[in-house]
User: Which sequence fits this backbone?
């Protein structure tokens, strides 16, 4: 039966509309360390100012010390700036009947390794029976993580393991320093023990504890080894040291801005890998939970409100058995650790709170991190299930982990989209179809199973080099080459019609009056003078000759 014409037209139009909406949602994911998409101009300013201050060494006269670990946040949070790092801090205390206690006389477990004067240098007492290190960690996208409603975190908790799966996550309820003393507790999410719920609290805590910068939320200095007499001797700047700037912001507010506006690390391909199904199957996702949606609270910025994020983390405390650091922190016990986020994991070295999974290949590192989940902890059965997978399945699972932190089109994984990635893109266009398990999925940004002109346009946006249009046809040269509009016989990323040898029509190694004469003779016609193969010899061909004028190279 013949379809009435308006019907098929309507079908076609709705298919077109569908296609448009899908495309409208596709955008390049920010690289690791970049700001969120869609920030306003003033938010971008705040991000940039915060980033500068995050990286600026604080002078002693502005409040650094008297005891500290570093002079600025960026010296530890390096990968990317604001993210993870390879530097660890030391915590110490004494063991008392299996429990962690502060060393007698100390006010905290964190050691500060530097001081403004040797008189105040803190030492880790020789008879401290517990001395542990904690690696610099990061959740990235701190603003988005902060905006996960407490209820969503609590929904994954199973404190008494009612479902008997051997995994029993627990919320670490804490009170932000900026909250009223009688305000309700919040679900902690930052730090290896989920000991902090808000970015501002962590900024205030880190400013005092890592840098000795007292502030409105943490207004008093740390005494070296608990000794207030030595402190009085070395502390020369009145507290709190962090003063408001001309716009009324304190240092802790500025660095909070920077961290809140950091984007989540990219994940490419975004979904559909067999390895993720295996990750779920062996129980990794019991703790490394893929999805959360941020709060729709009207006070949140547009770039943070109501966003789905994929941190692969439940932000809960788990008894990790022998892997745990043996230090209690607030309500977190000696054996409990907070699940770390896995986004960005492909770009991280070392892994684990003590940095024990370090060096070697990515496969070696994550295999060792997974093995460390057992025995005797809640991670034991999933570590065992991973060990029991076939080699092929393990490779698939690790390939999925390797997608976490990978930027679109970054085939060689150096976090830069350059000409080498362009050559890989060309191979993928030639291949045509793709799927999430295939290497070409890195170029299929709209995940439609094809590497085509839509993806090429996104590649041009993602490209880190200069975008040229040497043949002046209104499209990027890389696009012309990728789609076959231009040839690139010598694979240099420059359309053949633009290289000066191309303009050397008579082949005497000079682009000169003879070549110009050939162009003029062929004007309006196809043939050897039609350098860009447009079908006619015209001003573009003339421009190519003039641009290549001189010795051919
Ligand atoms: C000496 C190295 C060092 C310096 C300097 C430092 N940090 Fe950290 N940072 C760490 C370590 C180690 C952790 C993990 C702490 C823990 O959980 O015990 C951490 C954790 C954090 C976290 C929590 C990350 C998460 O999601 O779990 C935030 C936020 C943070 N730091 C912010 C800052 C800010 C802001 C500054 C500067 C004011 C700063 N840090 C300075 C080492 C450092
Ligand atoms: C019971 C909860 C739980 C399960 C199940 C679990 N993990 Fe973890 N995972 C954690 C915790 C907690 C840590 C941090 C432990 C530490 O460093 O002390 C961690 C650390 C990691 C790390 C290192 C991340 C970093 O930031 O250093 C990787 C990689 C990892 N897990 C992958 C996996 C994989 C793959 C599986 C499945 C085979 C898995 N995990 C199962 C809780 C879990």
Assistant:
């Amino acid at each position: 039966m013949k379809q009435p014409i308006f019907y098929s037209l309507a079908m076609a139009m709705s298919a077109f509309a569908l296609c448009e909406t899908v495309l409208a949602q596709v955008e390049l994911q920010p690289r690791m360390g970049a700001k969120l998409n869609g920030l306003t101009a003033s938010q971008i300013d705040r991000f940039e100012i915060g980033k500068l201050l995050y990286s600026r060494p604080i002078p002693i006269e502005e409040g650094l010390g008297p005891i500290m670990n570093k002079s600025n946040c960026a010296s530890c949070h390096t990968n990317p700036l604001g993210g993870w790092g390879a530097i660890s801090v030391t915590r110490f205390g004494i063991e008392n009947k299996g429990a962690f206690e502060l060393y007698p006389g100390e006010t905290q477990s964190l050691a500060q390794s530097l001081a403004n004067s040797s008189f105040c240098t803190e030492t880790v007492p020789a008879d401290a029976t517990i001395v542990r290190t904690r690696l610099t960690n990061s959740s990235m996208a701190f603003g988005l993580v902060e905006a996960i409603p407490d209820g969503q975190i609590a929904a994954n908790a199973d404190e008494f393991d009612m479902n008997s799966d051997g995994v029993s996550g627990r919320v670490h309820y804490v009170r932000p320093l900026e909250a009223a003393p009688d305000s309700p507790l919040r679900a902690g999410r930052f730090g290896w023990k989920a000991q902090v719920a808000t970015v501002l609290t962590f900024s205030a805590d880190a400013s005092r504890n890592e840098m000795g910068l007292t502030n409105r939320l943490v207004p008093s200095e740390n005494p070296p080894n608990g000794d207030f007499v030595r402190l009085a001797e070395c502390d020369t700047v009145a507290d709190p040291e962090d003063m408001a700037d001309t716009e009324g912001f304190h240092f802790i507010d500025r660095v909070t801005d920077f961290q809140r506006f950091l984007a989540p690390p990219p994940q490419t391909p975004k979904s559909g890998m067999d390895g993720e199904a295996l990750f779920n199957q062996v129980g990794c996702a019991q703790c490394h939970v893929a999805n959360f949606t941020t709060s729709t609270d009207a006070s949140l910025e547009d770039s943070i409100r109501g966003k789905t994020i994929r941190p692969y983390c439940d932000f809960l405390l788990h008894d990790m058995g022998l892997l745990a650091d043996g230090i209690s922190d607030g309500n977190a016990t000696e054996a409990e650790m907070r699940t770390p986020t896995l986004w960005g994991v492909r770009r991280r070295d070392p892994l684990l709170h003590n940095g024990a999974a370090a060096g070697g290949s990515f496969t070696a590192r994550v295999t060792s991190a997974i093995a460390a989940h057992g025995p005797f902890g809640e991670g034991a059965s999933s570590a065992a299930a991973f060990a029991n997978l076939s080699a092929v399945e393990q490779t698939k699972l690790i390939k999925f982990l390797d997608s976490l932190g990978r930027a679109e089109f970054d085939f060689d994984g150096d976090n830069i989209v350059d000409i080498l990635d362009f050559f890989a893109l060309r191979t993928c266009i030639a291949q045509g179809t793709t799927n999430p398990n295939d290497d070409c999925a890195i170029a299929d940004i709209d995940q439609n199973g094809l590497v085509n002109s839509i993806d090429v346009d996104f590649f041009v946006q993602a490209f880190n080099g200069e975008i040229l249009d040497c043949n002046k046809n209104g499209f990027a040269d890389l696009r012309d080459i990728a789609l076959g509009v231009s040839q690139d016989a010598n694979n240099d990323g420059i359309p053949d019609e633009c290289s000066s040898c191309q303009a050397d029509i008579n082949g005497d190694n000079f682009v000169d009056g003879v070549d110009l004469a050939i162009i003029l003779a062929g004007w309006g016609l196809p043939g050897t003078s039609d350098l860009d193969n447009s079908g006619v010899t015209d001003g573009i061909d003339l421009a190519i000759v003039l641009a290549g004028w001189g010795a051919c190279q």
